[in-house]
Every structure is written in C-alpha cells, then in structure tokens.
Write a structure and sequence with these properties.
With about 425 residues, this protein is α/β, with parallel strands linked by helices. The chain is built from 14 helices and 13 strands.
C-alpha cells in the first residue's frame, strides 16, 4: 500500500529528529541557530529614506518636499479614460507584454519625439512602473558577479536590483556643484566583468541632464566592453532652460545595445498607478519579459488605455508641463537661496539639491531629521544616495512638484531657518 505524501516527507526530514528518531536537544547537542529571515545581500535595503521622511513629515504635519510625488492629479483626459476602462469591463488580466493600444502608443511616442523606430509587437514591454522595468532587466541580464556601473548619487532601487541579481555595483561619482562626469573615473569603472551601464537622465537626485558628449562617451565604452546600456528616462519631459534630453538609443550604434525605460507616473502625475515600460532590441525585451512574468505577471489592465491616451496628448501638454515645472523650480531655488542655502540649479527632473553648510549644517542627515520640527518642511539627505556618504555630507534634496501655494508656504517657513540655528 503506497505511503502518504506526509509520511514520506516526515521520513525524509526525520521530522526534526536524528536518524535514531531523537532530536539534537534530547541528545544534549547544541541546536543550530535559525538563520536570519532576510538574506545577507538584501539586509542593507530593509527600509528606505523616503518612507522614513514621509512618516516624519506626517507625524509633525510638515510640508513634505522630500518624496517626489505631485500633489495634483493628472490630466482629466487620462483620468476619464481610466474610469471608462474600469466601467467598460477591462478589469481582468491584460496580455503579458501589455495591451496593444499602449504598446503602439509607446512606439508612436518614441517616433514622434525622438525619431526612433520601435516595433510595438516585439520591442516593447509594459511593466509595473519603471522600478520593475529596471529590476526585470537587471535580473535578466546579470549573472552573480557581473558588474553594473551606476552614477552616484543614485536612486536607491538600483542598488537593490543589482543585489537581487547577485551583481556587483561599481560607481562613478557625480560631484557637487555641477555634477559633471569624470572621464577618467568612468573609464576606470569598466572591467572585463561589466555587463550593464545604468544611466539615469535626467538624473535623480541631482537634476543633471547628461549632454550628448557625455552619453556618447558612455555609449562608446559600453560598445567597447560589449555591455548593455539601460537608461532610466522617466523625467524625459521635465527638462528646462536650454537643456535637451538625448535618449541613448538615438546615438550611433547604440539602438541595438540599449534598453530604454520610462513611465507614466512622473509625466502625467499618476505615480500611484505604477505603469511603466521598456523598449529595446527584441532579444533583450524578451529576456526582461521572462523575468517580469514571474514578478507581477501582468500590469494594471484598466490603466493601460488611459496611459495610451496620455501619450497621445498634443504638444501643448508637454511644453506646458515643462514650463510649469520650470517656474516652480525657480520659485524654490530663489527661496532656498534667500534662506541661506547654496543651490545647484537643476536642468531636469523636479528636484533641487542644496548645500546646508552655509547654514552651519555639515550633516545633511541631521538637518533632515530636525527640519520638520524646526520649520515644518521635510527634505531628503543626498548622502543616502551615495556609496560614500562623505561625498555629499551637507547636501539635501527638495522636490518642487507641488502646488504653487504649497511651495510659497514652504519657502516662507524655510526663511526662518537661519534665525533658529
């Protein structure tokens, strides 16, 4: 008569006992300590500074300029399209690569703005935000020990994705105040193990927009070392003054070796939707999809047609977005300078990096911990985005993606800081 599965399993494991049927404790032997619940490579990532600062802002009632989320909803057209999709029955699993209407809209967007020819059928993948797009790509491309080059200060999810893959993070530091790229440091970062170069432009947290020459240098070294360039371009439509966003995939020889990532959250002020995408050569997109299907399987069905609607908005929306954010940037930059900070004026994103040293704060972490209580404003220390915290010890990041009245209030509160320290 066949044994039950439970009986077989019990004998295989000895039900926690020795071969003679007695436990180690009964023999007086030491019981092995239970290993930590979290694997070692992920222990540095148990919490994020954004959650900590948001909790502090909530507890103190401070204006939260720390986390990068708008305080207004997106365009009515896409909100209405989402509601229509929900009420129209698009509430079950969408196709794995994403709904055709959104994949086609992504391809048209890339053609319209950058003259890129993207096949929506095989070269586009819809993801749960840009974070998943990057994680799926890194997990798909990197074997344990492979190296990924990043540019510090760097968005914290990059390091976590690299750690999940068992990869090695190699950093090139962008230094205050202009955050220029150091060519010698970049060249030294490449090795025989370099698998991916992860570029974020416009760059969070610095607001830097990599220029064409910098991107061509990065691209040429990637080609030389047969590395894939993964570009996070979620702030592509938030570029100011005379800066120009240059997608790496538009550079000579790089379309076949680049995975481009973007999302709806930042452009359309719907960060909670978590609808992102990637595009690139079919074989790289297929590799990322092989991983993505076991992370989230598919991505928010009824929101995909709405994002497609957003991508098709006229040029007036996109130029108005940049102009409106540039005015907010100027408001906050002027206010920070008046409060006594040194400021690096960003040319992209919706973040401003400021130096608190002129106010007597050598430690940005300490300032950000005290700021909500001192004046009722929350910010994020830039040092948490660095492997080497001393590279940005007195720098703090503020977000200006808020309503004008909120920014005016924050500036007025910050103006009191110098008299309190």
């Amino acid at each position: 008569m066949p044994q039950s599965v439970s009986t077989t399993r019990c004998r295989i494991s000895s039900c926690g006992r020795s071969a003679a049927g007695r436990s180690a404790r009964e023999y007086g032997e030491p019981v092995p300590a239970r290993p930590p619940a979290l694997v070692e490579r992920m222990r540095p990532f148990t919490s994020t500074i954004f959650a900590e600062i948001t909790a502090l802002a909530t507890r103190t009632g401070a204006i939260n300029l720390g986390q990068g989320f708008p305080d207004t909803d997106g365009p009515a057209e896409i909100l209405d399209a989402a509601a229509a999709a929900i009420h129209g029955g698009l509430n079950q699993y969408p196709p794995g690569p994403g709904m055709p209407v959104l994949r086609e809209a992504i391809a048209q967007h890339q053609r319209r703005f950058y003259a890129l020819d993207v096949d929506p059928g095989s070269e586009v993948l819809v993801t749960a935000g840009a974070t998943e797009a990057i994680a799926a790509t890194i997990l798909a491309l990197c074997e344990p020990g492979d190296e990924v080059i990043t540019f510090d200060p760097v968005y914290d999810s990059y390091a976590a994705s690299i750690a999940l893959a068992g990869g090695v993070k190699r950093t090139v530091t962008l230094r205050w105040p202009d955050f220029a790229l150091d060519e010698a440091e970049l060249r030294a970062a490449f090795t025989a193990r370099t698998r991916v170069v992860l570029v974020n432009t416009p760059h969070n947290p610095t607001g830097k927009v990599f220029d064409r020459a910098e991107l061509e240098l990065i691209g040429s070294l990637a080609l030389e070392h047969d590395a894939v360039v993964v570009t996070d371009e979620v702030y592509e439509h938030q570029v100011y003054d005379d800066a120009v966003h240059v997608p790496v995939a538009t550079l000579a020889g790089l379309a076949g070796q680049t995975v481009t990532v973007s999302s709806a959250g930042k452009t359309f002020s719907v960060t909670g939707w978590k609808v992102g995408w990637l595009h690139g050569p079919a074989e790289l997109v297929a590799a990322a999809r092989a991983v993505k299907q076991f992370l989230t399987f598919v991505s928010a069905g009824p929101l995909q047609p709405a994002v497609a609607t957003g991508l098709g908005l006229d040029d007036g929306f996109y130029t108005g977005l940049a102009a409106g954010l540039q005015a907010k940037r100027d408001l906050l930059v002027d206010g920070l300078r008046a409060a006594g900070f040194d400021v690096s004026v960003p040319r992209g994103t919706y973040f401003v990096v400021a130096d608190a040293a002129p106010l007597g704060f050598a430690d940005g972490v300490e300032l950000c911990q005290r700021l909500p209580e001192l004046v009722g404003v929350a910010a994020v220390p830039v040092s948490v985005f660095h492997d080497d915290p001393t590279a940005a010890s007195s720098l703090v990041r503020f977000a200006f993606c808020k309503r004008d009245e909120v920014l005016h209030d924050a500036v007025e509160r910050l103006s009191r800081l110098s008299s309190l320290v």
